[in-house]
Amino acid sequence: MNCTSTRLPYRDTGYFSKIITDYLDKSPKLNPFYEHTTDIAGIESAIEQRKKFSNHRDILVAELEKQYAAVPASPEVQQNIRLLHDANTFTITTAHQPVIFTGTLYFVYKILHVIKLAAWSKEQLPQYNFIPVFYMGSEDADLEELGKIYLGGEKIVWDTRQKGAVGRMNTKGLEKIIHRLEGELGVLPYGKELIALLKECYNGKDSIQQSTFKLVNVLFANYGVLVVIPDNANLKKSMERVFEEDIFHQTPSAIVEQTIEKLSANYKVQANPRAINLFYLKDDIRSRLVEEEGGYKVQDTTLEFTAEELKHELMEHPERFSPNVILRGMFQETILPNIAFIGGGGELAYWLELKDLFQYYNVPFPVLVLRNSFLLVEKKWREKADNLGFSILDLFREERLLMNELVKRDSSAQVHLTSGLRDTNAFYDHLKTLAGNVDSTLQSHVEALKTKSLKPLHELEKKMLRAEKRKFGEQEHKLQQIKSALFPNNNLQERIDNFMPYYAKYGPAFIDMLYEQSLSLKMEFIVVEI
Length: 530
Fold this sequence. Notes:
alpha/beta; five-stranded parallel beta sheet; 24 helices
């Protein structure tokens, strides 16, 4: 699959927060909030810390073997599971919820990034093994967020009345969306292959987490990606101490609140801890645990516990306790021999709140890597942009600013007015110099005359610009089309569009192309013309 690519700094896109651009620029203000640098030295440092930590490798391997017994595991996957027994094997991890049909493009980008970083790390440090891991946040209960996709700019929503953790929900009802997809994508070169895959994975019998597991396994098994589903009693047992201290002593919230106080001096805080950072997870319930009148209650239910009952519940059924965003990362890093975490801007922002919490529990803190971002530009959109006189990089700017530029550039009246304003400015600057040579006090008088003269001319320029824009209706419509396709909903393409239209058109070569274009630790925004 042929393509060309261009890179630009994340800061130049205008779509990333100050805390993330400062992190990428290595601002000293953020140094206290992370452990390792994003380079090979940081990887080596993380490895040395991880070596000192008592890992749960045998439990992890045992649970992965059970999990993969349900699917055909590729030789690469089987080998990577075996390698986890080795003390010189480490994981590089990304995480995401089981959004239906992968949700947005960056779901795929994240996974390809861990694959690329694992391969790069092996090249740099051949004495170690590095395993790419997709950690599934299947206990998330935000169905409104996880139960939708966008196709051709239209939002398609899964119609289900199920409640609780989305990962545990049955896939029944998704066949209606698959039927819709078949009508739109089935005619493309790889459309039938894609629809067959969706029907196999989302079969109406499996849970969402099992279906997502199957889909990710098919798409990335040849790269050796391991999917970890942490909704598991044996894995959660490793967190008993932390969960107990969170429930009965609120230790994690106290630590994170202190970090947030320091971090918020310069940045907007991404996630705030609660007194108890656990949900109770059972059947179709995933609701917050709250302390209330000397006991504990599961919010929005009739379930109540005494302290002793809740301690017993935690010991006997650790799978019924689900960590929120404050504790999820520590759970991940406790069960995996992990050295690097790849996440989006929002994820990294809340990870920067957690370093002191990790230190308190002596859990190694990973290298934090901003996930790869792409803008995919098909030939027809590049040609349309060229016809308007804009480069693809120009299109990151606001539509209003681009239209102003287009009108000023292509309108003869605007060209003459701009030239006149430039000449007027030059005239007053020259007059100011002459007056200053006679008497320096006259310069301020000339500056005042210049301001008075230019003000009505600038007002005239604005009025002419508005009037001229009406003559450029066709160009404005074309620009709106381009912006809508490449920046849907005035957002980055990767945060809205799904991978399926591209896969239906290009097949597995689309995944391979993205892998080839993926960066390891460079962390730059990538524009790919396909």
